[in-house]
Amino acid sequence: MKNFTILVASTLIITGCSSNTDFNGDKENTEEEEAEPVAGDENESREKEEETDEQAVEAPQLNEKGELMEPESEQVLVNREYRLPEGYEPEDLTVPDIPFSFEEDHPKKQIREPAVKPLEELFDEASEEGLQLYAISGYRSYDRQEAIFAANVAEDGEKEANQYSAKPGQSEHQSGLAMDVSSPSADLALTDEFGETPEGQWLKDNAHRFGFIIRYPEDKTDITGFQYEPWHLRYVGKEAAETMYEKDQTLEEYYGVDE
Ligand SMILES: [Zn+2]
C-alpha cells in the first residue's frame, strides 16, 4: 500500500526548473484549486508555532488574482499556489563572474544583485576545494516561460504539457533568485546524479553558508510538489538559509504553508 501511495505521489511530482526538457517546472492543472488568500491565517500560524516551537514567519501575501504582492522579496515563495505576477521582472538582474557551461550572452546568465556576490563566493570556495561547478541557467522571463509552455501545449496538448512544463508565474527562475548548476562529474547535466557527485554533496552541506538552499530536496517532494532537483540553487539570504538548513525545512515549511 505504501509503495502504491509513493508511486501515485511520484507521478504527480513535476520538475521545478530547466533541464534537458528546459522549462519544465510546472504542475498539474490546478484551475480548481485556487490559492487561498493568506490573510486571516494568523491564528492558525500561531497554533502551529506553539505546537512545533518554531519561529513564526509570516506567509507571503497574495493579491486578488492570487499573485504575490512582494515578488521582489529575497525570501519570496514561488510554487503552484504562490505565483509571481504576470510580467514581473526584477530590476537588478546582473551577470555574476562565475563559470558557465556556455559562452554566449544570454539572459539566463543573470541573477539578482543581492545574490551575485554570495554566488561568486560559493563558486570560489568550491573551486578552492578542488570542485568544478558550472552555472547552467538563472533568470527566465515570464514571457519566455509563457512561450515555452505554449509550445509544449502545441506539441503535446495542455494536459500532458501540464505534467512537465511550468506555467508562467510558477517558475522560481522568474524571481531572478535561482541558478541551476552542474559539474563535469555529472556531464554538466541537470540530473539526479549530480546530487551524488562531490560537487552536489558539497552544495548540500555548504550552500546555506552563502545564503542558498537546495530548493527541491529528495525527501521533501511531497511538500514542494516538485521532483528532486539537486542542481537548483535558490538564494534566500544567509539568515533564512541557515535557519532552513538547521531545521531541515523547505521554503514551504519555513512559512508554515506545507499543509
Ligand atoms: Zn532550476
UniProtKB/TrEMBL annotation:
<dbReference type="InterPro" id="IPR058193">
    <property type="entry name" value="VanY/YodJ_core_dom"/>
</dbReference>
<dbReference type="Pfam" id="PF02557">
    <property type="entry name" value="VanY"/>
</dbReference>
<feature type="region of interest" description="Disordered">
    <location>
        <begin position="157"/>
        <end position="180"/>
    </location>
</feature>
<keyword id="KW-0645">Protease</keyword>
<keyword id="KW-0378">Hydrolase</keyword>
<dbReference type="InterPro" id="IPR052179">
    <property type="entry name" value="DD-CPase-like"/>
</dbReference>
<dbReference type="InterPro" id="IPR009045">
    <property type="entry name" value="Zn_M74/Hedgehog-like"/>
</dbReference>
<dbReference type="GO" id="GO:0004180">
    <property type="term" value="F:carboxypeptidase activity"/>
</dbReference>
<dbReference type="GO" id="GO:0006508">
    <property type="term" value="P:proteolysis"/>
</dbReference>
<feature type="domain" description="D-alanyl-D-alanine carboxypeptidase-like core">
    <location>
        <begin position="109"/>
        <end position="238"/>
    </location>
</feature>
<protein>
    <submittedName>
        <fullName>D-Ala-D-Ala carboxypeptidase. Metallo peptidase. MEROPS family M15B</fullName>
    </submittedName>
</protein>
<keyword id="KW-0121">Carboxypeptidase</keyword>
<feature type="region of interest" description="Disordered">
    <location>
        <begin position="17"/>
        <end position="109"/>
    </location>
</feature>
<feature type="compositionally biased region" description="Acidic residues">
    <location>
        <begin position="29"/>
        <end position="42"/>
    </location>
</feature>
<dbReference type="InterPro" id="IPR003709">
    <property type="entry name" value="VanY-like_core_dom"/>
</dbReference>
